[in-house]
Amino acid sequence: MSTAIYPGSFDPVTLGHMDIISRSSKIFDRVVVCILNNSTKKTPLFSRSERVNMLNDVVKKFGNVEVMQYDGLLVDFAKENNISIIVRGLREITDFDSELQMAQGNHMVSPDIETIFLATDPRFSFISSSMVREFASYGKSVKGFVPEEILPLIEAKVEINQ
Ligand code: PNS
Question: How far is the centre of ligand 1, averaged over its atoms, from the C-alpha of 72 (Å)?
């Protein structure tokens, strides 16, 4: 059985993430969406448990996707769970540098682990969680950026002017 990890900070999950989850679920028998800490992102909008809940809600329509979380290195999570494939989405060329570095670093410390990149659907390539947080924090609706189920959760955090 082929299993892949789709790791990220998912603060919050976006339509771009959903596209990668959906496509990965067709490629692999099982996909584990794993919420990890990104040390460059200091002040999350959603707590870890809120992110677990929101992801569980939006992936329940896929029969082979589950949500996990981990405090530590992605490669250690992969090893502990006997998973050797990591999936990441590439939105644009500016993602390439950091994603390549991360994949090469992970491969250096854990040569059995491979990273596979999926090209983001161009309809979603401009979307990032940080853009969603920024628009929402200034009261703009983020409809069209995130799954519909997430909108009320964002509206509960910030005041949105419809
Ligand atoms: O959604 P993001 O913020 O781009 O995801 C980045 C993430 C969380 C996958 C990455 O920061 C990560 O793997 N964090 C866990 C710690 C780790 O393994 N660091 C080494 C690779 S940079």
Answer: 9
